[in-house]
Amino acid sequence: ATTRYEVESAPAECSGVVASNHSGYSGSGFCDTPNAVSSAVQFTVNMPVAGTATLGIRYANGTTANRPADVSVNGSVVQPGFGFEGTGAWNAWATKSLPVQLNAGTNTVRLAATTAGGLANIDYLDVTTDDGNSTIMQ
Ligand code: GCU
Questions:
Q1: What CATH number does residue 16 fall under?
Q2: From the alpha carbon of 30, which atom of ligand 1 is closest?
Q3: Which residue numbers delimit the CBM6 domain (predicted)?
Q4: Cα(108)–Cα(91) distance, rounded to whole angstroms?
Q5: Is 38 close to ligand 1, i.e. is its CB under 6 Å away?
Q6: Entry pTM
Q7: 109: how many CB neighbours lie within 10 A of its CB?
Q8: Ligand 1 center from residue 101 Cα (angstroms)
Q9: Which end of the chain is flanked by fewer CB atoms within 10 Å, N or C?
Q10: Domain annotation covers residue 138
């Protein structure tokens, strides 16, 4: 199953402005952070059980320069310098995927820019769990 967390919807946090000046976003906008190291977005993700989940981060980067981010789960960096490469235009959206381990209950997923460009524009986080084919062994 996939749960979508819009960056403009609390408890998600956008350390910038929620903007809507480039089309194609989901929900009511996207997060445009300052062009600076450590610009960040943070999502709160709820899981019924602990396990592996795939993060799908939708973004746009209208420059030709990568805008990498450290990806942290519950305060620990799980993927340093995860790339958010240019998408060709600010209204051209792409999704980057990353498997992570999540706890049961509430988790934080944070992206923090590692270069002076700051983050790409961030639209949402999808969290997909593989719960479609579980088998109870007995
Ligand atoms: C432009 C663009 C913004 C983007 C910014 C950036 O100003 O309109 O949406 O966030 O560039 O470089 O980050």
A1: 2.60.120.260
A2: 9
A3: 3-128
A4: 27
A5: no
A6: 0.94
A7: 24
A8: 32
A9: C
A10: no
